[in-house]
Every structure is written in structure tokens, then in C-alpha cells.
Amino acid sequence: MSEKTQQGESSQEPAAQPAAVSLAVSAAKSAAEPAKGSAAASAQRRRDHVPVFSLEVFPPKRNASVGTIYDTLDGLQGVDPDFISVTYGTGKQADRTATARICNTIRQEYDIPVIGHLTAQYLDEQGASEALEMFEQAKVRGVLALRGDAVPGREPAGVFDHASDLAAFIRRTHHDLTIYGACYPEGHPQSVSLKEDVENLRKKVDAGVSHLISQLFYDNADFLNFVQMARAEGVDVPIEAGIMPVMNVGQVRRMGKLCGARIPHALDRMLDKWQDDPRSLRAAGIVYASQQISDLVAQGVQGVHLYTMNHPGITRRIWQNVGDLFETQV
Predict the structure, then answer these.
(1) Going by fewer Cβ within 10 Å, which terminus of the chain is more open, N or C?
(2) Residue positions annotated with a catalytic role
(3) Mapped to the 3 state alphabet, what secondary structure does the chain carry?
């Protein structure tokens, strides 16, 4: 899962020591004054779904207060996720602090299970251990182990070259944490072939990953074909389908280049039709994502992971369209 792809700039929250996580969250809560009885009330009534339904949010961008995450979380009132994942930057202490703060906020103030992202290639073992300790303080459900995006001009730490290396480290040092991993329905952009990518995916599972979340895709056939290949390779863990709603033309074109996400003809027609009408394109994007999700559920997927891009209104409208398709269980 590409952190840069999902959230743009990485968070630049001021660094803090691990013990300060809960204090930082409390201060942010006081400053933000979230609405009473908002998402927390619905979260207390939350039950698990079949298939799984989860969301992704990211910490506030550069120079924004951590308290602004309440705008997103309060805006998700009425949406009923099984868990929320929180993205991570490139490995700086500020990144792990921001992610841990948001995880703690979601769990404590909204009573929703949460997982924290952790990117590997710029971390050494000390940095990884520090991040994992902060996540455990935040009582996360698990960690999404990622290799992470390359940063021009910055040399990787050379400790965790692949997400599977980080997964193995987490399993060895924090075996109480569930390890999540990313997968790529159309193949990782740097892989030679989809077949090779699926073979590497098996290595992640062997390293300790027990739940997979896919990169975005725009054609369900690509995801379903990928799942079939993964099962044939012996990958038997749950695989959630990652859905990113269309919000603007530039976003879709950029994702196509960064992630190798194919743009099918139906979506291409939408982009051409409403490229100069952002409101209509967003409305069409909500319909397109809702149709993707309903078709996936009809075909028996194990889960759907919706990339909110911190746009709660769009997420709410999609959930209104598809929420009844996700059966609840006690």
C-alpha cells in the first residue's frame, strides 16, 4: 500500500516521546471540542460485518493541528466500520507519533478497533521497536506492514528491505499484534509480472501476515482474477478489496501512473464527460464506487476497505448506498 499514494504529503507532526501519546491526544481533543454523541455513539452499537467493512484515514497534513482529525471522525457519523486503519509517513519519529495519536483517539474516543500502518525501508530495528511500543500503548488491533515509498535523495536504512522483513520482525518481537499486509491486484509497479508478485505475496504470509488489504483498482475483474491467482499460490488469508472513490480527474490519472491501476472504458467515459464539472464527477464517482462494492459483495469477497481520503461526506454517501449489503453478526 503506497502511503504517498493514499495521503499525499506525509504528516509532519512535532516529535514526541512514546509516553506522551495519550497526553497529546487529550490535548488535541480539548482543543478540537468534538461534537457530543457523534461517531462514538454509533460505534458503541457496532457489530462485526460479513464481509468485513473497513476504512482508511490519515493524520493531518503539514502544519495542521492533530485535532483536525475530529472533523473527519465526527463526519463519519452513521458509518459502521469493523476497523479503521491510520496511515504512516516515511519513518520519521513525527510520523509514528502522529499515527499513534490518531490510533489512540479512534480507539478511546470513538470505540472503533484500529490498526496502524508502519513503513519499513527507512526504519532500523530501534525505530521499528519504538513505533510498535507506541502502537501497543494505543491498543491497536494490529499493524499494516508496508515497504513504503522511496524518498528522492534519502538512503534506506538497509534493515527492512521488504515488507516481509518487517512482518517477520513484528512476529518475532510483538507476537500479540495481528500483522496486516498490502497486495496489488494488477501487480506491484516494480514487479516483473503479476505472477511474480503473487509468489512474493506468499512470502509475506509465510513471514506472519494474516490479513491482506489490496491497493486500489477500478475494474473488479482485475481483483477477482488476482484473488484466484493468490489462492492457487496457497495464499489462504482474508483479502480485502481496496476501493478509492473517484474525486477528480487528476487523482485517477495520477493513480493510474503511480499504482498501475487500469482505467476501464466506463470510468474513462465518466472522466471525459464531467472533467470540467467537479460536482457531477464526484457524484458519479460515488455511484461508481458503490457499484464496485455491491458487485464485489455479490461475488463473495471477504472484505472491502474504503480509502476515505479524509472526505467523510463521500464515505457517508457510499455507506448509505451499500451498508445494508454487509450482514451484521454479534
Answers:
(1) C
(2) 56
(3) CCHHHHHCCCCCCCCCCHHHHHHHHHHHHHHHCCCCCCHHHHHHCCCEEECEEEEEECCCCCCCCHHHHHHHHHHCCCCCCCEEEECCCCCCHHHHHHHHHHHHHHHHHHCCCEEEEEECCCCCHHHHHHHHHHHHHCCCCEEEEECCCCCCCCCCCCCCCCHHHHHHHHHHHCCCCEEEEEECCCCCCCCCCHHHHHHHHHHHHHHCCCEEEEEECCCHHHHHHHHHHHHHCCCCCCEEEEECCCCCHHHHHHHHHHHCCCCCHHHHHHHHHHCCCHHHHHHHHHHHHHHHHHHHHHCCCCEEEEECCCCHHHHHHHHHHHHHHCEEEC
